[in-house]
Amino acid sequence: MSTMALVFPGQGSQQPGMAEPWQDHPSFARWAEADDVLGLDVSRLGLAAPAEELREPRNCQVALFVHHIVLLEAWQANTPGSGPAFVAGHSLGEYDALVAADVLDFASALRLVDVRARATQDAADDMPGTMIAALGFEVEEVTAACERAGAHVANDNAVGQITVSGTVEQLAAVKAILAEGKGKVRDIPVGAAYHSPHMAAAVGPLGEALDAAPFADATVPVVANVDAAPHTAAAEWPTLLRDQVTSPVRWRESVLTMRDAGIEQVVELGATAVLTAMIKRIDRGIDRIAITTPEDL
């Protein structure tokens, strides 16, 4: 029985030229397929887009999704018979996890990611906001500060690593409240208050696409962001992914769910090693492997 989980990071893990080292792998063909599916030059985003262009929400989400699938299929080809016991993804990465678990095919998931990216950008334009990172604080401290300021916990990533969404004014109030504590607060350079009620306008457009998507029952349990619980039923995902847009990512709890179910090793597939660092803070006893280049296979 496998004691390994596969995980996929979200926005912020992208790197300019991240696709270039993988051009010799058969799975690199997914970039050309993405070009055809969306009618866009998605390949250029992975190969040649500068950092600023790659940070734009639609470009970032689409490019990262495709890149993760290239890495997934390269890893699968290199480790036949080494399937995971669980899969999970952080925010955007949850869509890659669904492909890894055979809940969605590549093209269907890519179309959903494109709708999600455009819908969340439109929501950000309608209700501007941004994010901060609260480092070294207990989640209860940050939650209380958010309640006082009208802001929202967006990601519970690891012990002492929490992100908050809100307006500039709300986040200034959170900073002032947390200044009394021992931790640090840092700005996150994003133009939206992700995983909060600021994204409510995105739920409708994304929901229509989710209702039409061909979800299948999972071949491997997927631990969902919104409840940190494993799911296998196809019918659950339209609601889970709707809720994900406006709900916190419960990553710390998701890792503990997998650990408590017997996971001893986590393999992260991404352009940079993000989640393995978080997992180290959550439980140093979990073995961590990050696949970011072909040499890591």
UniProtKB/TrEMBL annotation:
Signal sequence annotation: none
Domain of life: Bacteria
The keyword Transmembrane is annotated on this UniProt entry: no
Reactions catalysed, as given in the entry: holo-[ACP] + malonyl-CoA = malonyl-[ACP] + CoA
Top enzyme category: transferase
SMART domains: PKS_AT
GO molecular function: [acyl-carrier-protein] S-malonyltransferase activity
Gene Ontology biological-process entries: fatty acid biosynthetic process
EC number, as in UniProt: 2.3.1.39
Active-site residue list: 91, 195
Region Disordered, residue ranges: 1-22
Domain (Malonyl-CoA:ACP transacylase (MAT)) ranges: 7-297
Keywords: Acyltransferase, Transferase
A Gene Ontology term for the protein's cellular component: cytosol
Keyword Oxidoreductase: no
Family listed: Belongs to the fabD family.
Protein name per UniProt: Malonyl CoA-acyl carrier protein transacylase
Organism: Euzebya pacifica
Organism lineage: Bacteria, Bacillati, Actinomycetota, Nitriliruptoria, Euzebyales
